[in-house]
UniProtKB/TrEMBL annotation:
Pfam families per UniProt: ABC_tran
Name the record gives this protein: Unannotated protein
Keyword Nucleotide-binding: yes
SMART domains hit by this protein: AAA (SM00382)
All residue ranges annotated as the ABC transporter domain in the record: 2-237
Entry keyword ATP-binding: yes
UniProt-listed InterPro entries: AAA+_ATPase (IPR003593), ABC_transporter-like_ATP-bd (IPR003439), ABC_transporter-like_CS (IPR017871), BCAA_Transport_ATP-bd_LivF (IPR052156), P-loop_NTPase (IPR027417)
Keywords: Amino-acid transport, ATP-binding, Nucleotide-binding, Transport
Family: Belongs to the ABC transporter superfamily.
Length: 237
């Protein structure tokens, strides 16, 4: 279980996360939704060690991860897919995926080839393009590649930031369905950040709504999706 308590992250005088408390339960999809500037991406970056909180606690399976290096957090079983379909353009698809094994936990060092094959089964288009440079892929293919690279580390918790950004609806549906299948069949815990609230709440078990760095709602996803007043006030629809 991922537990966050009274988390504050600042950029100079700007408070990006203002006392955030929430929980992501094991083998469930928890989504964090909110408008631009709500603090969603900052939350994931703070969990993964890319940003340092000014105060608060983050524990994963009962162990504090505040102050840990990002690579050590990966070794604890947490993988982060940042927004923007981030891949290394000059490397091939295969080389990009294999980079996900760099900071694997020791017990998973022996099955890298098996894990890569699993990614090709999850996203067959990547297998067709395994020798192709990542920079030549479409936006959807780059997002599949970024997710595959994270999953090769054999995470128990996947931090997924705006996977739908800039992608066609059919591609988004395929990616979200794949992540959902992984969660339901392997026990993967997913913390999904999305601006598209309908997409996120449609697949998630639980939802957290952020506004200006604060938690304004923390409920089962179906309840959040059904709350028209909350949607109108904070999500604009």
């Amino acid at each position: 279980m991922l537990k966050i308590e009274n988390l504050v992250t600042k950029f100079g005088s700007v408070v990006a996360l203002d006392g955030v408390s929430m929980t992501a339960h094991e083998s469930k999809i928890t989504t964090v939704i909110g408008a631009n500037g709500a603090g969603k991406s900052t939350l994931l970056r703070t969990i993964s060690g890319l940003e340092h909180p000014a105060q608060g606690a983050i524990t994963w399976q009962g162990e504090s991860i505040v102050g840990r290096r990002p690579e050590d957090i990966v070794r604890l079983g947490i993988a982060h897919v940042p927004e923007g379909h981030a891949v290394i353009s000059e490397l091939s698809v295969e080389e990009n995926i294999s980079m996900g094994s760099l900071f694997r936990r020791r017990k998973f060092k022996s099955d890298i080839a098996k894990a890569m094959d699993e990614m090709y089964q999850l996203f067959p288009r990547l297998q067709e393009r395994r020798k192709q440079l990542a920079g030549t892929l479409s936006g959807g293919e780059r997002q599949m590649l970024a997710i595959s690279r994270a999953l090769v580390s054999r995470p128990q918790l996947l931090l997924l930031d705006e996977p739908s950004l800039g992608l066609a609806p059919l591609v988004v549906e395929q990616i979200i369905d794949s992540v959902n299948t992984l969660c339901r069949t392997t026990g993967l815990t997913v913390l999904l950040v999305e601006q598209n609230a309908n997409t996120a709440l449609g697949v998630a078990d639980h939802g957290v709504l952020l506004a200006l760095g604060k938690v304004v709602a923390d409920r089962p996803a179906a309840e959040l999706k059904a709350d028209e007043n909350l949607r109108a006030a904070y999500l604009g629809y």
